Amino acid sequence: MKVITTAQSREADRITIERGTPIEVLMERAGSCLYEFIERTFHPLWEQRVAIFCGKGNNGGDGLVLARLLDGRVSSLQVVLAEDVAMNHPDRDATIVVDALLGTGYHEPIQGRYLELIRCVNEDFPLAKIVAVDIPSAMRVQA
Q1: Chain-centre distance of CA 69, in angstroms?
Q2: What is the pLDDT of residue 84?
Q3: pLDDT tier at 2 (50, 70, 90 boundaries)?
Q4: What DSSP assignment string belongs to the chain?
Q5: How far apart are CA 117 and CA 111, in angstroms?
Q6: Contact present, 121 and 53 (Cβ < 8 Å)
Q7: Residue 50 CA, distance from chain mean position
Q8: Is 111 exposed, middle or buried (0-12, 13-18, 19+ CB in 10 A)?
Q9: Side-chain-side CA neighbours of residue 65 (13 Å)
């Protein structure tokens, strides 16, 4: 596995989009790779209870693609949207929590709703493995 910096990741995305790959295609690829990773790592998939935390940017779009691919294949699926301030109570019995809140484009300071959701991901799921999309949100999620 090659590890790159946040700046290198942003630049790779910019160049790929500039060369004609739509952002929707990039999100579909990322969501598909996440699905394959989760399917391979957390077998059998149908026994898993999944909560996906999605931000409003491209990282959240990756999470929504993953949700579409997991729908009907897991025991329970819940999507928590950062924009939905009336958060319904996440399934505390989730076995997998996906952090798709903030990606390489986040800016400090992290506060308000995002800080609340990061705390929730870190503290409210005692049985879950946490999987981060790209990088753990603001490097604060314990993925």
Answers
A1: 13
A2: 83
A3: low
A4: -----HHHHHHHHHHHHHTT--HHHHHHHHHHHHHHHHHHHS-SGGG-EEEEEE-SSHHHHHHHHHHHHHTTTSSEEEEEETT-SSPPPP-TT-SEEEEES--TT--SPP-HHHHHHHHHHHHS-TT-EEEESSS-GGGTS--
A5: 10
A6: yes
A7: 11
A8: exposed
A9: 21
Q: Are the C-beta atoms of residues 63 and 79 closer than 8 Å to each other?
A: yes
Rounded to whole angstroms, what are the CA distances from 94 to 11, 61, 81, 115? 35, 21, 16, 20
Give the pLDDT confidence of 43-76 residue by residue, as tens digits: 999 999 999 999 998 999 999 999 999 999 999 9
Token pair, residue 72, equals 């009907």
Distance CA 13, CA 121 (A): 27
User: Which of 9-13, 78-82, 85-89, 93-97 has the least mean pLDDT?
Assistant: 85-89
